[in-house]
Amino acid sequence: MGTIAENIKNYTDELPEGVDLIAISKTKPIEALKEAYDAGQRIFGENKVQEMTDKWEQLPKDIKWHMVGHVQRNKVKYMAPYVDLIHAVDSLKLLKEINKQGEKKDRIIRCLLQVKIAEEDSKFGLTAAEAEEILESETYREFKNVAVVGLMGMATNTEDTSKVNKEFDFLASVLKNLQIKYPVLKELSMGMSGDYKIAIENNSTMVRIGSAIFGERNYN
After folding, report:
1. Which one has a higher pLDDT value, 185 or 2?
2. Measured between alpha carbons, how far is 204 from 194 in angstroms, rounded to an integer?
């Protein structure tokens, strides 16, 4: 495995135009993020609000911070001043809280609706019908400080590439159908270190790469 800088360059050279690299930096020290930043990386993904906020306070302010983990409503206020995109919105209640905190900070906070495409019980997410229900709800339409800009999904953790492809293809088709009525939905966040190539073939606009950039995570 190369250095963090070499890994960043390899991905940015490989990814097609229009596909953003989200460097998943959860559990990684500030020094590792600085190395990625110095190599030109500007989008980082975290899954814990407190850890992301600590890093935001210490690192350059042109970084775009993406919250990729499951979000508890009581934590939204901590990231509302700076978060660029929240990937894993799975309820109207959560959107309501994001809108409330966005209003306090005079910001419009961008979000993705997480659709459950994997069979594992551990994965969060809405059904395609529930996602559409949120977008069509009077409640969502009244929000002024939150904007749903696309969908996010996580494929089943399996070696069966045909299964992964089927799940990504399904999510891409859900987005395509929603875009007829909601053309503002442009982002499709799917694909990680092990399956990002399949995701790109299915029109992903952002891939979430962690261990293949920074090395294996240390959870101690």
Report:
1. 185
2. 14
DSSP secondary structure letters along 4-42: HHHHHHHHHHHSPTT-EEEEE-TT--HHHHHHHHHTT--
Q: What percent of the chain has pLDDT over 90?
A: 94
Tokens of 5: 């800088």
* DSSP H stretches of helix in the chain: 4-14, 30-38, 49-58, 76-79, 92-104, 128-136, 138-142, 161-181, 196-201, 211-214
Q: What gap in Å lies between CA 139 and CA 145, rounded to an integer?
A: 13
Query: Rounded mean pLDDT of 167-194?
Result: 97
In this structure, are residues 22 and 68 in contact, taking their beta carbons and an 8 Å threshold? yes
Question: Which residues contact residue 46 at a Cβ distance below 8 angstroms, ignoring those fewer than 6 apart?
Answer: 24, 25, 26, 52, 55, 65, 66, 67, 68, 69
CA atoms within 13 A on the CB side of 59: 26
Calpha distance 168→112 (Å, rounded): 16
Question: String of b and e for 39-49 (b: at least 16 CB within 10 Å)?
Answer: bebebbbbbeb
d(CA 210, CA 198): 17
Task: Report the share of the chain in percent with pLDDT over 70.
Answer: 96
Residue 120 φ/ψ region, left for φ over 0, alpha for ψ in the -120 to 50 degree band, beta for the rest: beta
The residue type at 123: K
